[in-house]
Amino acid sequence: MKTFFGTIQRTIKDDLGYKAYKMRVASELADEHKSKRKSFGIWVRKNIPKSMSKKIIFSDEKCFRLNDAFNTQSDRIYATAREEAAYIGEIHRETQFSPGVMISLGLFYQGVARPMINEGTINSSRYIEEILP
Hints:
flat; 133 residues; 5 helices; alpha+beta
């Protein structure tokens, strides 16, 4: 029985109401991991007083670079010949240590800390002097 690909695709989409979704990658948690996480949560609740929980800060940083990452798998040049592709701009040149900014945000007992925007390279001494206070 010959059936066109478009007919099958239309049937799946329109008649069955299915959509195409990308596969997502996530860490696999074994039962042992789940029980360890649960026991750690119970331990924290029992052993850390509320006064100490007021001193805990959850923070996260993200560095945004001026020259974004180059992905050879998705960046393509369409041309009739290799010479034409080279003429158009086949070779991607990028500088090492591109300038950028780092944005930090913190969450603590009393609320959310204001976002901090830092330019330039962040090393341990600059992190301690400028971000932590």
